[in-house]
Structures are given as C-alpha cells and as structure tokens.
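Usage example:
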Amino acid sequence: MLRGSRGPIVAGAGAVALAAILVFFLVLPKMGEVSSANADLVAAQAQQSTLESQLAALEQAEAAAPEAKATIQRVEQQIPPTVDEAGLLLLIRNAAERSGIVFSQLTPGTPTLDATSGLSAIPLAITATGSYFQIAEFLYSIETLPRAAKVLTVTLAPGSADATTTTVTNLLQLQASAVLYTSDLSAGPGSEPGPTEDAAALGGA
Amino acid sequence: MSQVNLLPPDILQAQRYRRLTSLVFLGGIVLLVLVFGYYLLQANKLSGVNDEVAAKNASNASLQADIAEKQKFADLQAKAQEKQQLLAAAYAGEASFSALLMDFSRVIPSDAFVNSLALQVSEPVAPVEGATAGLVGTITGSGTAASIDSISVFLTRLEQVKGWVNPWIATVSENPELAAYDYSLSVDLTDEVMTDRGKGSPDAAG
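Running the assembly step on the lines above writes:
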C-alpha cells in the first residue's frame, strides 16, 4: 500500500491528518475549556476581591455600631418619634424656671409636616416677662434643650407696669416663636395616633 | 579490484522509499505523541484551574455568608446617617438668639436704651433676582439716646459685630420730655450669625 514514491507522502499526509484531527477534536476543545476555566477563575478572584472589600467595610461598620446606636438614640431624644407634648411643656417650663422668667402664655401650634425634611414641625409661641439678661438666658436654654428646638423670632417690649404704681422696673415682655420637631409624620389633633411606622422602625433598630 | 553493484537500481530505489516512508511514519507517530502529550498537559491544567475555581467559589460563599451576617451593621450605619440628616434638617438656618441679645447689649452705648427690639432669622433661601444673597434676618428696634453722638457711636458699633450688616437709623427725633433723642434702627443679619449646626456642620448637629 505504501509502496513506491507515494508511500512517504501518503504516510506524512496521514500522520498530519490524524494529528490535525486530534488537535481539532481533542486539544482545541480542551484549550477552550482551560481558557473558560481561567476566565471563571479571574471572575472568582475579582468577586473575592469585591467581597473582601465589602466585608472590610462591614467590619468597620460593626466596629462603629456602638457609635451608630448612640447616634440614633441621641437623635431620637432630640427628635422624638411622637410629639410628646407633655415632655415639651416641661422642658420649656424648666428652662423658664432656670432663667427666672415668668410665662404669661405658651401656645403650641398644630404640627405640620415638612415633606422636604420628613419631619413634623411643632410651632411654639411664647409670651413671658423677665429682665433682658434673664430673657437671653432663657433663649440660651431653649437653644441647648435636649430636644431639637429652633428660635425663629424674638420681640422685646417694655414690661407691663403695675397700673396702681409708678415704679419703674427693668422687666421686658418677650414674645418669641420657636419650632420643635418630631419624626411622627402625622402628629397633633386628628392625626393617626402613635409614631409613624417608619420612624418607629428606625428607632427600634 | 573493481566493485560491481549487482542490486538493480529499481530495487535500490524501492529500499530508499521504504526507509523514507518508515522515517515519515515515525515522524508522524512522534507528532501524534506530542499532540496527545499537549492534550494531557491541557487536561491537567484544566483540572488544576477547576480546583482553584472551586476553592475560590467556596471561599466566596463563606465571604458572602459573613457579609449577610454583618449586613445589619451597614443598615444600622445607614439609619444613623439618616437620623443625622434629619437632625441637620431640623437645625438648618438656626441662629443663636441669646448670642444676638448679648451682642446687642455689648454694643449699645451706656447713655442709650431701647424701648422695643425685634429679632428675626429665617432659613437662607436660594437667591432670587434682585434680592441680596446671604441675608438671613433683621434686628429692628426703637429707643432713646442722650445725644446724636451716642446714636452715631451706636451705629458704628452695630456694624462691628460679626454677621451684622447695613445698620440703619431710620428716624431720629427730639424727645423734649427726656431732653434726649428717640431713634429707630434696623440691622441686617448675614449667614455668619448662624450656629455651626445651623450651617449644616455634621459635627455640630449633635
């Protein structure tokens, strides 16, 4: 069969053909599998790197968890999940007592929702009598209340003198407006009782 | 003595072809062995890579389990940030009125007093055309001073307070009963009067 001058050519062609078949049907698919497996390995390595970064960030968050809890607790004290009008009145009363001013009227308004901030603002009108520096101290007490409060306007006028005497006093009448906050989105008369679900959920976390 | 080749040339040629065929056949076998060897090499490499992928996947699964377990801390941190943003929103635009009153008491001359005083601060808004940017409030009042000089000194001092601008005496009128001068004043307040937390400083909000 392989006699004559065509013998080497046929043998060479046969060997090359067989080698080509082997390469085509065995080696190349295997190389493809290796390449695919390498791509999987690279993807797994990239995923591992990403996961390690995520885990590192979470470990940092875990380390900072006590601080985060303290922050949530502090903010909840400053912006309570309900109006807590009783506490509000006591805080203002205590501030007035500390500074020595005397209230003549305290008017908490109906809370209104500020959609931008997601807070309900509780307007508070204050009318009181005291000396200039007592009033300054009272305002300082309001500014440093454990609950978030913001004074918006202050008007001072001479205090009402006793009509039966002509004694000159250094008392001034204070009219101030301030605003306090609650994270209860529906607060005040006619609202859904209790804290807003989301706010409560945040607080409970 | 001369040599005589008795082998016919066609037989010699056939022998040469047979040898060449054998060589080519041998070369073919070597080639096939090499190809098969390379195949085995690749198979071995694939096995190694697959093992590595499996190990990485196992490691990643473990990492994902750890991440799922610690996700609550990320949620907690997000909630804390959300709460801080709420607090910052609550205090936005805050000014210290007690500080404003103390500043006012420091700059009023000793021979002048006020009969009425009104302080008002509002949150800074985006500047509109024609409006002056940076003004957040006003102080207005009226009172009595011993002389025009005192009112002038008062006016000068008002401008020296940080965040107080445009001091203005709107009226000065003689008060014959007290032998003095009644005045009315106004001062504009810039955002410099705001507290740190009013300016949105995250550290100050707490």
